[in-house]
């Protein structure tokens, strides 16, 4: 297949999926990972007879591609990406590539917080309603792998800003933007406007037949909307005010009025996912369900019986009257704000890790009100000490999940909550946030 060489950078879930699909479409495929490739992914490449390299990027094997598909984790500042761009070789995301080969419709969910929960809830509702639907993006099996091996009519995709940055022709049939809060600013020259512009790419290429669902209470979203040209039908959701053609909270009831002939009203006490942030997530998913004309009874049932996702405000145990909650997925300050907002006072907060230029200011009020001690879990905790030394009496440093849990256990008394909600990435002490969450759970079970 001379002239049809596709190179894939990064051999994680998305990279392997892209390789499978590219091979199926008849391309000459080469996979290159600067790190070591996990055994199970290596085995897939060997089984499919796809050429690969690891622990290096060999330029002569990469720069002869007609197109490069890169892992969302690789920033544009990496040497090989700079060289590719200089040579005008297109660099795209796995999501962009996969969409070319499927006629399925897509529901795409982005936002700094709540993406995974909203994606899972939307998928749960659609599946319960009997739709032929796949789940992909930042979650589950890669989109490209499913396009290569499955035949779904719909996909619910969790989309990060890093994915959006490498998407060009892709179009979401239904786009959801949950919120825009400071996160990953190190990838956006520490400029909020750049990050917001990246999130707004979720609306690109949408037409008047498509839907754009967004939070009318989110300041940064409203700011970004002023400069954006949105062709899709707008559908806002709010817990502060009544909105038309979307969802709003009145008293304890959510109202979804996409279809005035058949509106949906539901009490927030019926929601399986509790807390203010989950009212927003439920509204966004509910609007999608109503756009797809799913029956109210199915929507109600689905929202009432969904299980919370692992590592997101996951209740681990109650020991001697103390609740232990695993929120390891909170890798930014805003996620930790949500977690603190949804738990009762007298919290032992375990936080820390790789600080991505965090501004802890937004946590101060909640920490003063609810937190009695902070247990730092990370190699460098200096900025946490500086941020909260006047707000909390006890701040302790620990260097393993086991140690953090032991310290928290001794600090907690009956009625307290031990909350792992790090506000930071996990790569200093752990493989990833799942590893951090699992080690926390193991340490709690050993108490």
From TrEMBL:
Cell compartment(s), UniProt: Cytoplasm
Sequence similarity: Belongs to the MurCDEF family.
Main localization category: cytoplasm
Role of this protein: Cell wall formation. Catalyzes the addition of glutamate to the nucleotide precursor UDP-N-acetylmuramoyl-L-alanine (UMA).
Species this protein is from: Pedobacter hartonius
Reactions listed under catalytic activity: UDP-N-acetyl-alpha-D-muramoyl-L-alanine + D-glutamate + ATP = UDP-N-acetyl-alpha-D-muramoyl-L-alanyl-D-glutamate + ADP + phosphate + H(+)
Protein known as: UDP-N-acetylmuramoylalanine--D-glutamate ligase
InterPro entries: Mur-like_cat_sf (IPR036565), Mur_ligase_C (IPR004101), Mur_ligase_C_dom_sf (IPR036615), Mur_ligase_cen (IPR013221), MurD (IPR005762)
Pfam families: Mur_ligase_C (PF02875), Mur_ligase_M (PF08245), MurD_N (PF21377)
One term under GO cellular component: cytoplasm
GO molecular function terms listed in the Swiss-Prot or TrEMBL record: ATP binding; UDP-N-acetylmuramoylalanine-D-glutamate ligase activity
EC number: 6.3.2.9
Keyword field: ATP-binding, Cell cycle, Cell division, Cell shape, Cell wall biogenesis/degradation, Cytoplasm, Ligase, Nucleotide-binding, Peptidoglycan synthesis
Binding site for ATP: 111-117
S-adenosyl-L-methionine in keyword set: no
Domain Mur ligase C-terminal stretches: 311-424
Leading EC class: ligase
UniProt signal peptide: none
GO BP annotation list: cell division; cell wall organization; peptidoglycan biosynthetic process; regulation of cell shape
Residues covered by the Mur ligase central domain: 109-288
Pathway assignment: Cell wall biogenesis; peptidoglycan biosynthesis
